[in-house]
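Pipeline run #58 for the internal structure catalog. This entry was flagged by the ingest filter as a single-chain record with no existing model, so it goes straight to prediction. Upstream metadata was stripped on purpose; only the residue string is passed forward. Reviewer on rotation: M.T. Logging verbosity set to normal.
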Amino acid sequence: MAPPSEHLTVRADHGTTVLTVSGDLDLRCRAEAEAVLERLQADGADDVIVDLADLEFMDSTGVSTLLKLAHAVRRRAGRIQLRNASSRDMFLLDVRGGLGLFDLVKKRC
């Protein structure tokens, strides 16, 4: 699995990779996010859940990180789900044209 991260936690759950994002997903954590994404790609994760329940803030760098992951999973004909995204998170992904890459599981207000 992916290396330890302050903002990104990765765990396996019955063949599904669950990526939990907490705190801020922004320019400051870009290096750790890139390391986690590289490891997920190397592991060939093709069934991924991204849980944003504990996300407090996401800037354009964070959006780019999620879109990069979604594109990588989709290229492998995988499935990527977005859980617990706020309306703001979904708006940011939609503005970048990437919301449709994710299967939406549950929204939070």
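catalog note: Strands lie at 8-13, 16-25, 47-58, 79-85, 103-107.
catalog note: The first strand starts at residue 8 and ends at 13.
status: ready for reviewer M.T.
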